[in-house]
Amino acid sequence: MDIVKALRDLIGDKAVLDAADTATRSAGVWRPDNLQAAALARPASTEEVSKVLAWCHANAVGVVAQGGLTGLVHGADATADQVILSLERMRNIEEINPVQRTATVEAGVTLQALQEAVEEHALMFPLDLGARGTATLGGNAATNAGGNRVIRYGMMRDMVLGLEAVLADGTVVSSLNHLIKNNAGYDLRQLFIGSEGTLGVITRLVLRLREQPSARNMALVGLETFDKVAAFLKHMDHSLGGTLSAFEAMWQSFYQLVTSPPANGKPPIAQDYPFYVLVESQGADRELDTQRFNNAMEAAYENGLIVDAAISQSESDCEAFWSLRDDVEQVLHHGFPIIFDISLPIGEMEAYTTNLKTSLAETIGEHNLYIFGHLGDGNLHVNVAVKAEDYQRLRPVVEQLVYAPLAAFQGSVSAEHGIGLEKKPYLDVSRSANELALMRSLKQALDPGNILNPGKVV
Ligand code: ZN
Questions:
Q1: Which CATH number fits domain 93-211: 1.10.3470.10, 3.40.50.1700, 3.30.465.10, 3.20.20.105?
Q2: Closest CA relative to residue 258, chosen from 288, 220, 229
Q3: Given a cut of 90, is residue 28 above it in pLDDT?
Q4: Are residues 163 and 192 in contact, defined by beta-carbon separation less than 8 angstroms?
Q5: What is the pTM of this model?
Q6: How far is the CA of 129 from the centre of ligand 1 (A)?
Q7: CA of 340 to the centre of ligand 1 (A)
Q8: pLDDT given at position 31
Q9: DSSP code per residue over 222-268
Q10: CA of 448 to the centre of ligand 1 (A)
Q11: Which of 255, 275, 252 is nearest to 263 (CA)?
Q12: How far is the CA of 109 from the centre of ligand 1 (A)?
């Protein structure tokens, strides 16, 4: 069976790369290797996506849909006998409607391209994450991306009003709803959002836009105990009356890492507090918002919730604060990092992390532990850096130490990165047998031939 020839007959010669050309492409920003696949199809329309899938379905060929390849859990890995479906030629922003406050886009549009396009209408698309320039909206939807402002606007699934997806057999399901409220039957879009390409290929999206905030205030804060971190979150959310837009926590070792050489960042406050928080408020009135933000900070200081703070005086201060939090690549300088993305109830975080520190020290000996994350969402990024030569041996040991206690704390093995291949063995830590059985029934119903991203998630 000549897969390349068959696909070229369907969507054109230039739209299909053979195995050799595919192998010249990088497998993604976090990966040292190149892509491998029998062919890489680059359809230019939903109709062409449908043709490719129908052919693969009829010929039992596995298909891996790829967005910007910025994922961290091997969710878009392909093998030499599979077809990669890239949506890179589907990059049209079809409509921005300032009255309805929606954008209709093709799945290959990057997050940043949409953010910039809606800015011209004084609107905002609130999803935001470090990979914005490369990550695509189709990929953001397929993985239900999270990021920095979930506390205010929710995850990607909260920003998608409608979508169009192509099923395994090529059937196009167009569900391009523009309404905020639409209870006419099952919510089909949510079947595909977060399914990581295993139930259908998302080709177009209707996204909900928001009014653009015109003022922001930020502070970087030092705190003495975790209880005070949790209390400070409640205090700020309560005092800011709905304008809280980010609440990011950094444990001491991470703060020291991003504010010491070789990192470029300078410490805005002393480096010896156990916990740090980056708090952001977005509003529409510079004077009133600043007054309210400063009042809230003052009260937190007087009540003994915080011991030290640097408060932004300008947009460039805000950017400098964010660049500290975003400088996660520094974890590469002190060992080989094993990266985790877990969720926990906020009340359980201290017990969990204290427990993890002890178990790591007892089991693997010398290592560096860096914890930071979207604390307001209950999402921590735990990085365990070990010596490069120990990485392969220690990785499963560390995974066990991080994941196994999560069930007792009612946590999740994936907050925002997804399952892919990497976390598949641990899915049952966070999901019951009946939940997993229902997931398999859905997979069987939508993709009976198991051609869509086979082997991933369930
Ligand atoms: Zn994150």
A1: 3.30.465.10
A2: 220
A3: no
A4: yes
A5: 0.94
A6: 7
A7: 10
A8: 79
A9: EES-HHHHHHHHHHHHHHHTT-EEEEEEEEHHHHHHHTSTTSS---S
A10: 34
A11: 255
A12: 21
